[in-house]
Amino acid sequence: MPFLFPQVIPFFVKTTKMDPPNDFEALTKAFSGFGVDEDSMVSILGKWHSEHLESFRKRTPKFFLEDERLFERWDDHHIACLTNEFLRFKDIVVQWIMHPWERDARLVHEAISKGPQAYGLLIEIACTRSSEELLGARKAYQSLFDQSIEDVASRLEGIERKLLVALVSSYRYEGLRVNEGIARSEAMTLAFAVKNVDKKNPIEDDGIVRILTTRSKLHLKAVVKYYKEIYGKNIDEDLDTLMSLKETLQCLCNPQAYFSKVLNNAFKDDADENTKEALTRVIMTRSNVDMKEIIEEFDKQYKVPLTQKIEDVALGNYKDFLVSLIRRVA
Fold first, then answer.
1. Do residues 30 and 315 make contact, with C-beta atoms less than 8 angstroms apart?
2. pLDDT category, 181, cuts 50, 70, 90?
3. Which band of pLDDT confidence, cut at 50, 70 and 90, is reported for residue 5?
4. Is the predicted pLDDT of residue 253 greater than 80, yes or no?
5. Coil, helix or strand for 311?
6. DSSP code of 33?
7. Dihedral of the CA atoms 101, 106, 108, 112 (nearest 10)?
8. What Cα–Cα distance (Å) separates residue 22 from each residue in 25, 29, 44, 156?
9. Measured on CA atoms in the order 109, 209, 213, 256, is the torsion positive or negative?
10. Residues 262, 267, 271, 274, Cα dihedral to 10°
11. pLDDT tens digits, 56-88
12. CA-to-CA distance for 294 and 12, rounded, in angstroms?
């Protein structure tokens, strides 16, 4: 009687049963949010066989479409979105290591390339950096792109051009001296321009642009203070239809409140990609500047710790890196 070898099941034979529903839910969550959950994807996808993948495709119609030939294909829009999420961790690491001047120069270049929808970023950089930091960004821009920020800004379209060119070109006085009489007078000048917006937009007024782009931040805080004293309300209340002017004054006079609002907008479910990108940008650019004050302001305004909000919406290595940058200063 011949010797019979015992039957051996090769290690690659599909012997596992279909994974429980929570694996499908965990994988869907790993794809859905700020960043991606790399650990979950590795642990789940690494043990799945073809029938598991097929079942996942059929059970996630928001990811996969079936065409007229009954062919299952990944939705192109979701591929683009998922690519962005995979890139978030790479982007924050690369930009964190950059010199701040180079980082700002690249952000300015990106904002100019995107057009009017990103002009707010130009205002943010020009108004929340010190005079030396803004000068450094201008130098870096010339080194990187062989042209000046001022020259590129002068070719922008829209009524914001005059203001934007003056903001990116400015080099403000940063001392403690404030002329209270001039600040009071300029508060009235600003109020007159705001109340006559139907005749002329304030950001097209040479006098208003001069005040916004040459006065020190302490001086402008005094202007805002006198505006409230004279007219009985915060200037923000009169600027709801003048967003460029409103953002300029917020960035110059109360940057922590501005950045808290930008972060909160990034967390909203209906936020577009430009708005979402602010989460990386704000934490990365302010971590070594005023992140502690921004954390306190966010907690005060929205009644939830910033770290908790990030842990609720972000995923994987991207989330861990964001939280580490915040906790180092908290």
1. yes
2. very high
3. very low
4. yes
5. helix
6. S
7. 160
8. 5, 10, 10, 51
9. negative
10. 50
11. 888 888 888 888 787 888 899 989 999 999 999
12. 53
Give the whole-angstrom CA distance, residue 88 versus residue 110: 16
Contact 223, 190 (CB under 8 A): yes
Angle in degrees, CA 324, 266, 244, rounded to 5: 120
The pLDDT tens digits of the residues spanning 81-108 come to 999 999 999 999 999 999 999 999 999 9
* Helix (H/G/I), strand (E/B), else coil: 51: helix
**Which residues lie closer than 8 Å to 189 by C-beta, 6 or more apart?**
207, 208, 211
CB 96, CB 129: distance < 8 Å: no
Q: Indicate the pTM of the whole model.
A: 0.89
Answer yes or no: is pLDDT of 37 > 90. Answer: yes
Helix (H) / strand (E) element for 74: namely strand 72-74
Other beta carbons less than 10 A from residue 274's beta carbon? 15
Q: DSSP string of 202-257?
A: GGG-HHHHHHHHHS-HHHHHHHHHHHHHHHSS-GGGG-TT-HHHHHHHHHHH-HHH
Strand partners, 74: 64
Q: How many CB atoms lie within 10 A of CB 192?
A: 13
Find the Cα–Cα–Cα–Cα dihedral 57, 62, 63, 66, rounded to 10°. 60
* Cβ atoms of 326 and 306 closer than 8 Å: yes
Residues contacting 182, CB < 8 A, separation 6+: 219
Residue 208, Cα to own-chain centre: how many angstroms? 28
Residue 14 has pLDDT above 80, yes or no: no
Query: Which amino acid is present at 308?
Result: Q
Structural contact between residues 41 and 27, judged by C-beta atoms closer than 8 angstroms: yes
Instruction: Compute CA distances 307 → 180, 196, 269, 272, 322, whole Å.
Output: 40, 43, 18, 22, 8
CA 167, 172, 178, 179 torsion-angle sign: negative
Contact 107, 121 (CB under 8 A): yes
